[in-house]
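Here we describe the complex-level prediction in full. Unlike the single-chain runs in Section 2.1, the two entities below were treated as one system.
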Amino acid sequence: MFVILVYDTAVERNPKVLKTCRKYLHWTQRSVFQGELSTAQYRALMTTLNTTIDPEYDSIVTYTARSPDMIESSTLGITLGGPGDIL
Amino acid sequence: MFVILVYDTAVERNPKVLKTCRKYLHWTQRSVFQGELSTAQYRALMTTLNTTIDPEYDSIVTYTARSPDMIESSTLGITLGGPGDIL
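The structure predicted for the assembly as a whole is:
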């Protein structure tokens, strides 16, 4: 599946959230990651993040599609993610 | 079409970018908006943003799908967008 993940977490938890996201996805922009994951990988990512965040304060939103073909990506201005992150 | 928009723009241009995004989309999280737009509305949004940002410094990424049914959204922790923003 294709995954877009956006996070809004407290500064003190950001390093752990970033480390987990980087393990599974490519960095796109400030608080955004994207990538292709298996269902098992997606579940593992969500489980790890669930134990990392404070659910009363932090927020992580994921958008998933069965295939990257279902989503078109477009950039205005500079592309922040590396070449490996282009769809 | 269904649109997810993430922005990473300089602080001084944020108010203008936010105002434009709010006109067309619902706020989801920190630097993320989403919503359903016609092709004409999407083009108008992109044109306005293109004249607002500094293309050498700012970055706006959009993900579009033909229909919201193609994208599943899931939240860990708190939901920051209002009730009107739930998919």
